[in-house]
Amino acid sequence: MGAEFTEMISAFNRMASELDETEHTRKRLLSDLAHEMRTPVATVDGYLEAMLDGVAGADPETLTMLREQTDRLKRLAEDVSLVSFAEEHRLSMETHVISVAELIGVAQGQAHSSYAAKEVTLQIAEDSGGAVLLGDRDRLSQVLTNLLDNALRHTGPGDQVTLRAGSDSATVFLSVEDTGHGVAPEHLPHLFERFYRVDTARDRAHGGSGIGLTIVRSIVEAHDGDVRAESRGPGHGTLFTVELPRHG
Ligand SMILES: Nc1ncnc2c1ncn2[C@@H]1O[C@H](COP(=O)(O)OP(=O)(O)OP(=O)(O)O)[C@@H](O)[C@H]1O
Ligand SMILES: [Mg+2]
Fold it and tell me: Which chemical reaction does it catalyze (predicted)?
């Protein structure tokens, strides 16, 4: 009886501390989200007020600005809901057999024009040896798109980004390496945290809300994989490596 009672108490305490942790995460998410929404909402509000006061007209420039801010809010809502679903292990996934070469091809096709426009070279090193993965095609594509998007954001004309694929008997390796800004060592462990940005002002000015890499990690983990970031420091580029179980 004594032992059973002790066991019950400890199970109860364990449950209580798990609930505490969930509650803490929820509170932080809500306050981060409120913080992220503040800037676009204030911008929209300011423009509308100027229009109502007759100071600004409904000219294309103003309307474009308003649309950009509402797009940002829309994306924020979508991103946060995706991450929340993933954290609760409720991410909907359509599972298919996907060839790594195809995944790389799709990512390259999507990134091609924005890279060309910024004069950043996108190099492809597809050496997966015909490996295939089991997973959700769109979500895995999003992993590469988010990494390529970040790499482009942190490079300039003349820089180079390499999208690589490789495999061994059990694992598929996908990586995105850039010759851009790099990341200082103290920031590296935090990059995948929700809403984490190295340079809040600069990164936000680029339209980033610091959730892209959280999505990357959520999707990779939902596929029983791993992702990590490495950099030799500011000015020395960054390397992101994704490892996924090989299916064939
Ligand atoms: N290739 C990279 N080079 C240098 N810093 C990077 C790179 N990728 C990400 N970072 C840093 O990590 C932060 C988090 O990246 P993440 O993709 O999560 O957010 P974001 O790009 O700022 O916004 P979002 O992806 O939500 O639009 C970035 O703000 C940036 O500071
Ligand atoms: Mg990003």
Answer: ATP + protein L-histidine = ADP + protein N-phospho-L-histidine
